[in-house]
Amino acid sequence: MHLQLSLTFALACVTGVLGVPSQHLETRQQPFKSTAITSHAEPWAIAFLPDSRVLVTERRGNLRLVDPTKKTQGTITGVPTVAYGGQGGLHDVALHPKYAENSIVYLSYAESGSGGAGGAVARAKLTLDANGGGALSGLEVIWRHTQKASGGLQFACRLLFGSDGALWISSGEINQMTPAQSMTGNLGKVIKLYDNGTAFAGNPFADQGTVQAQIYSLGHRNPLGIDFDAEGRLWEVEMGPMGGDELNLIKAGANYGWPLVSEGRHYDGRTIPSHSTRPDFAAPKAFWVPVISPAGLIIYKGDLFPNWKGNAIISSLSATGLVRATITGDTAKEAQRISMGKRMRGIREDKDGAIWVIEDGANGRLMKLTPN
Ligand SMILES: *[C@@H]1O[C@H](CO)[C@@H](O)[C@H](O)[C@H]1NC(C)=O
Ligand SMILES: [Ca+2]
User: Of 5, 30, 249, 328, which residue is most buried, by most CB within 10 angstroms?
Assistant: First the structure.
């Protein structure tokens, strides 16, 4: 009784004296149960196999096969050589929409070449073995950045398949800035392809040239998360420079302004005009100053967290947790920050509505989030 009373009193003091805003109160207790499954060296991305096992990429070039029921992991061999360093290495993994029939998986990664490193996307057939591992075969590079650069920064290259079977790639500008505005290169773009790497026929610049034909939208910096909402609209999160992380609604042919406009400033302190100075560019639906460092995105569609349906859930590095934003029509607004005490690298929603996340860094845990 005493204990309870003093706890209540202490809580009242903390909330009263410090004046914690009420929107942040609910984040004191995590609104979900998190179950740690496995631990990984610099994990980047997760993908669900039909048998409920999970593929996890690790940045040095390892592809792991996780069995969540046993909390064990095996190795998939045959991953291409990756350019590990800076932010580069093995990045995303996605299953072909007809994976159940063709066993094809897609990987994005940084590759070395003339001038440094650039992003690439390859596909291969995945054969699972009886020992909790497997092998890739017939690997084929289907897309790559049109130039490479030193420094190892901002490759991004999230992969996502749409309901029309198209493959979407969120292409970073590898810290080269102006190429994000160039229509003769594919840096700093959202790319839409067929599953074989050929440009999608309905793309907005389809008749303007081979590279132009890949481009769905331009003017992106470091787009690390893409997902569709229930209406089939594509949303994207990208890291801005110093300030100015963005949540964008992606429209065919639109220019999102980088590096000509931003809500942030350059790392050397130079200012950048804001989106409001250039109404011809698409402004973000939400932005963050200071940054949250968005590293992954889902638009929640399940039933396990009914209050989050239709919301953007962003895995965030510098906010060390999840950032939830509500979407109303064409607008978006931050609604909640859920501190998890760790930089959160990746996020995916499973078909049962559970949310899976992976932490960043040396011992990044794969975790399943379910309601309390
Ligand atoms: C790639 O797939 C598209 C759509 O199925 C097809 O039209 C095109 O011919 C294919 N390209 C190659 C090189 O196979
Ligand atoms: Ca922008």
Answer: 249
Q: Which residues line ligand 1 (CB under 6 A)?
A: 194, 196, 198
What is the pTM assigned to this prediction? 0.93
pLDDT at 9 over 80: no
Distance CA(271)–CA(264), nearest Å, equals: 8
Whole-number Å distance between alpha carbons of 189 and 171: 5
**In angstroms, how far apart are the furthest CA atoms of the chain?**
75
Secondary structure string (H, E, C) spanning 267-300: CCCCCCCCHHHCCCCCCCCEEECCCCCEEEEEEC
Domain 294-372 annotated CATH 2.40.10: yes
Alpha-helix residue ranges (DSSP H) falling in the chain:
2-18, 22-25, 99-102
Determine which residue's CA is closest to atom 3 belonging to ligand 1.
194
- Please give the pLDDT value at position 10: 37
Length reported for the chain: 372
Domains of the chain by residue range: 294-372
Task: Write out pLDDT tens, residues 217-256.
Answer: 999 999 999 999 999 999 999 999 999 999 999 999 999 9
Question: Which one-letter amino acid corresponds to residue 169?
Answer: I
Percent of the chain's residues with pLDDT above 90: 92
**107 touches 155 (CB < 8 A):** no
